[in-house]
Amino acid sequence: MAHHSTQVSSDLIWEIAHVGVGDTARRRNYVRGLKFGIIGNQNSYLVKRAQSGGVRFSRDPLNLTNVHSRKNAGFVNDKAVGVVPAKDGGVSLITKKVKHPQRPASHSHTTTLSGKKSTRKTYKTIASNTAKSGYRPDLRASAIARASAIRKSQKEPKDLPESKLRGAKAKKAAAEKEE
Amino acid sequence: MVSAKKHVPIVKKRTKRFHRHQSELSQPILLIIKKMCLDASWRKPKGSLYPSLISVSIIAFAVVLRAKWSCHRYVQYKDEVGGGGRRTSIGILLRSLEASKPPPTSDTTTRTKLIRTLQIGFGSNKKTRHMMPSGHKAFLVNNTRDVELLLMHNKTFAAEISHAVSSRKRIDIIQRAKELGVKVTNPKARVTTEV
Fold first, then answer.
1. A61-154 CATH choice from 3.30.1240.10, 3.90.550.10, 1.10.1740.10, 3.30.390.110
2. Total beta-carbon pairs less than 8 A apart between chain A and chain B
3. Consecutive 10-residue averages of pLDDT for chain A (179 residues)
4. N or C: which end of chain A has fewer CB within 10 A?
5. If you measure CA to CA, which chain B residue comes closest to A148?
6. What family is this (chain A) (predicted)?
7. Which residues of B touch A (CB under 8 A)?
C-alpha cells in the first residue's frame, strides 16, 4: 500500500502497524483514516473545481452535505447516513450496516419515508434512527437539513417575482407603452 | 431561487487593472521572439507542481537574457520559491551567485525592492473573496447531476453553466436549479431567442 500511494503519511502507516490487535475500535478508526488518506484524493464521487478558490464536493449518496470531508465520506466510514429523494415526494434514509463493511452490495439499509407523512414526523424518524439510537449522533442536523431540502425541492417551484423597472426613463417608457 | 446568506459587505479594495511591472520596456529584439515579451497583464503561472523546476527554468531564462542582450531589467523579476514567506528575487540571486555568496535567506531586506505577486481578491476581505455581488460564489456546472451537488449549498454557491453546454441541456439544468432553489448566473445564455 505504502508503495503505491505517496500521499499517505509514513506516520499513519507506522501507527496502523503498531496499534494493539485487541483494540479493535481504535484500529478500525485508523484503518478508516488510512482508507481516506489513500482514496480521498481520487475517487469517482469527488468533484473538484478550481473556481472560487478551489472547491471539493462529493457525489456519494451516503454523504449528507455533499462536502468532501472525512466526516461526511460515506464510502470510508463503517457507519454512514444518506438521505435521497424517493417516489411521490418522500425521502429514503440509507444507513450502512456495520457488520459487513466489505460487502458493498448488501451493506446498506434503506427506509423510505413517504411524502404523505408530515415533515415533522419524517425528521423525527430520521433523528431517532441516526442520533437517538447512538448510530451517528454527529450527523443529526445535516441529515434533517437534507431531508428538509429534498422535501422542499419536490414541491412545485414558485415563479420568480417580476423584476422591477430601474430608473425614471424605463418607468416612463413602460407607462407610455401601456397607454 | 434563494438569496445568499448574510455576509459582511463586499468591498473591493482595488478596482484598477494591475499593470505588469516594466512590461513596456520590452526591447525591440525581444519583440521578434514573441515568447520573451511580456504582456501588461502577464502573471507568473502558479501551481504546486515542481516549483523548483519552474524556478530553475526562470533563472536559466534570466541568465540567457542577461548574457545575450544584457537585459538587466528582466532579472529583477521576483520568483516565488515554495510558500508565501520564502520569496527571493532572481536579480539578487544572480548578483549573489556572481559574488559567490549564498543568497539571502530572509526576504525582509529584499521585500521593499520587490513587487508582490498578485492573487485573486487582492486586498479584499478574505470572507468575501471570490464572492459575486449577490453574495454567492460561482460553481461551474455541466449537467443536472452537478446542480444537485448544490442542494445543501444554495445560499453559498450559484451554478454557472459551462460554455459548451447545448441549449437543450441548459433548459434541463435551469429547470433542476429552479426546483432546488439554486441560483444560475447565466440563465439567459443560449436559451433566450431573439424577438
1. 3.30.390.110
2. 49
3. 51 61 69 83 92 92 94 90 93 91 86 94 95 93 96 88 87 88
4. C
5. B152
6. Belongs to the eukaryotic ribosomal protein eL28 family.
7. 1, 120, 129-130, 137-140, 145-146, 149-153, 157, 160, 178-181
